[in-house]
Design a protein that fits this description.
A hairpin with a 2-residue loop joins strand 10 and strand 11. It is built from twelve helices and 16 strands. The chain is of the alpha+beta class and about 400 residues long. Strands 6-13-12-16-15-14 form a six-stranded mixed β-sheet, with helices on both faces. Strands 2-1-5-4-3 form a five-stranded antiparallel β-sheet, with helices on both faces.
């Protein structure tokens, strides 16, 4: 498997960056020039080349801001997410340097240097189309990885207090790259902005306190905000978006005042990882992996570490991720048209269509079942010996338990 994303200046064809993941060689300049040349040749003839198939994969061209052309190449991965990947890469570029800077491209060398800061997040995005991804930081492009822990409501109250003290409006707390709590206003942000902020918090280099100028691609693409990230404990980060004040030295004191008494609660919340579900929620041994999606908030909880799962020991963890993620992306996602990023009339058309409430696959080695109830959807990977009627019963029980549990707080 390999995935490559190339950014070039549309007018000049000068490469801006090239990032890859998987077993592929670095793309040569001559290859980049040829790929861009194909796109420019079609434009000269009033045509738009969108996609072409290659051996075991495809190539996609997308132009943004009339200044940048993104080229995506994927082989052996989730090709259906390639267009979504390029959309997120474009938003990431705006997130880092602003839309106005991206539209002008006056000094490409300077822009190349400025975009280096986005490489850790870009690499996380590339993981979402890699079937061998095991980090779980970004398994799905359009969903925010989360944890469900009994301490979430307490932590959200502390987070709200901290956000108010630093005059911030949007804040989130992440553990092992999974969102645990968010400020009350966090979901006012566009889902792409929320996703990029979560990845920014998850991709920090271990610095105890740092600030990063960022642009919100939908809400504020031309005026920068200040993202302040603080490391509370190992693999625990809190991120808040605020103005020019207070200074970092003052924020350091506020962090101590707000979070010092919550250290024990955070340590208890960390124990939920990598199961990602409260221990009060039990799963049958025949369940090999599970994905729960909160559709309005576009948050998901995934686990392949389920207690008492004896039958799944023969299946590797990366394989569980691959098969369950493939099922969601290619089939189960159709149960939630709200998750599809569309524009204008397309969104209206999709909302009027008849949407199924459940879907399943069967193979010699596994069974998959997905069911949606109101705002929640679950995708479950079962052992192959489980009958279909039992699969449906267990999936419904899981949805019911998660919907009614007092220890589940989104």
């Amino acid at each position: 498997m390999s995935v490559i994303v190339i950014a070039v200046a549309t007018d000049s064809g000068v490469p801006i960056f090239s990032r890859k993941r998987g077993n592929c060689d670095n793309v040569q300049f001559s290859t980049i020039a040829s790929l861009h040349g194909i796109n420019m040749f079609s434009k000269c003839h009033n045509l738009t080349i969108m996609k072409t198939q290659v051996d075991n994969g495809s190539i996609l061209w997308k132009e943004y801001c009339k200044s940048v052309t993104l080229i995506g190449i994927v082989t052996g991965g989730l090709e259906c997410d390639l267009e979504l990947l390029l959309l997120y890469v474009h938003n990431l570029m705006v997130f880092c340097i602003g839309k106005k800077e991206l539209e002008n491209l006056k000094n490409i060398d300077q822009i190349k240097r400025e975009l280096r800061q986005c490489y850790p997040i870009l690499d996380c995005l590339l993981e979402a189309v890699d079937p061998n991804c095991v980090s779980q930081t970004c398994m799905f492009l359009d969903l925010i990885q989360s944890m469900l822990c009994p301490q979430a409501q307490q932590l959200q109250q502390v987070l709200d207090s901290y956000s108010e003290r630093v005059t911030g409006r949007w804040a989130c707390l992440s553990i092992h790259g999974h969102i645990v709590a968010t400020s009350t206003d966090f979901y006012e942000l566009d889902s792409v902005e929320a996703k990029l902020l979560m990845l920014l918090a998850a991709s920090q280099d271990g610095a105890p306190l740092r600030e990063t100028p960022i642009y919100l691609p939908q809400m504020s693409p031309n005026v920068a905000f200040r993202a302040v990230t603080c490391k509370l404990l190992a693999d625990v980060y809190v991120l808040v978006i605020c103005g020019a004040t207070p200074p970092l030295s003052e924020i350091d004191e506020i962090v101590l005042q707000c979070w010092e008494n919550s250290a024990l609660i955070i340590k208890e919340a960390k124990l939920v990882y990598p199961r990602n579900f409260p221990l009060s929620i039990t799963f049958e041994p025949c369940i090999l992996g599970i994905l729960i999606v909160n559709i309005p908030k576009k948050r998901c909880v995934f686990s392949r570490h389920l207690a008492g799962n004896q039958k799944g020991k023969s299946m590797s963890s990366p394989h569980r991720i691959d098969v369950l993620r493939t099922f969601f992306v290619t089939t189960a996602r159709d149960l939630a048209p709200e998750l599809q990023i569309k524009e204008g009339d397309d969104k209206e058309c999709s909302s009027s269509q008849c949407v199924p409430s459940e879907a399943y696959w069967c193979s010699e080695y596994h069974k998959w079942h997905a069911r949606r109830t109101a705002d929640l959807m679950t995708c479950v990977l079962y052992a192959p010996t489980v009958p279909i009627h039992t699969v449906r019963l267990l999936t419904n029980q899981i949805l019911q338990e998660i919907s009614t549990s007092k220890e589940v707080y989104w």
